[in-house]
Amino acid sequence: MESTESEQLEKATFGAGCFWGIEVTFRNTPGVVDTTVGYMGGHTENPSYQDVCSDRTGHAEVVQVTFNPNLVTYDQLLQVFWQAHDPTQFHRQGPDVGSQYRSVIFYHNESQRLMAETTKENWQQSPEFSGRLIVTEIVPADTFYRAEEYHQQYLIKRGMATCRI
């Protein structure tokens, strides 16, 4: 059977604070085919943005990345993730505070888990994080709940390149 392009695509899911900014970072990464923001890792079914912002659902704001592994590797996506946020901040990123803003990698298979753990160890040993503990969780992917449509490509819809003013 001939392989189609869609069969070659893979998924990766990352939480690195507010999903608006990290979505842009991954969308602009060559080899990324699609990005979708949503919620993962909690105990409430079909949570809304307001539910997740209450910090009572257990969900993280995440970006689910669909990528072509022939154009960008999972390891390269991990490097983008580590560089795009501060993985030493516990349940926050900058002014955004709460477990929904935690640093987390949701792995979709054993290979992703091993690569995530290896890169976390490597980054922890780098001079950049000397004396600071990386608190990023590495956990199995579970149900992904797509965020409301107004959150999808939020910044681009508003003509903004980043969340920073």
Global structural class = alpha+beta
SS element count, helices: 6
**Largest sheet composition:** 6 strands, mixed
Order of the strands making up the biggest sheet: 7-6-1-3-2-8
The count of β-strands is 8
N- and C-termini, Cα separation: 51 Å
User: What is the global morphology?
Assistant: globular
Question: Helix and strand layout, with pairings?
Answer:
Elements lengths: L4 H4 L1 E7 L2 H9 L4 E9 L8 H5 L6 E8 L6 H11 L7 E2 L2 E2 L5 E5 L2 H15 L12 E4 L4 E2 L7 H4 L8
Parallel strand pairs: 6-7
Antiparallel strand pairs: 1-3, 1-6, 2-3, 2-8, 4-5
Brief account:
The protein has 165 residues and is of the alpha+beta class. The chain is 29% helix and 24% strand. It has helices at 5-8, 19-27, 49-53, 74-84, 110-124, 154-157; strands at 10-16, 32-40, 60-67, 92-93, 96-97, 103-107, 137-140, 145-146.
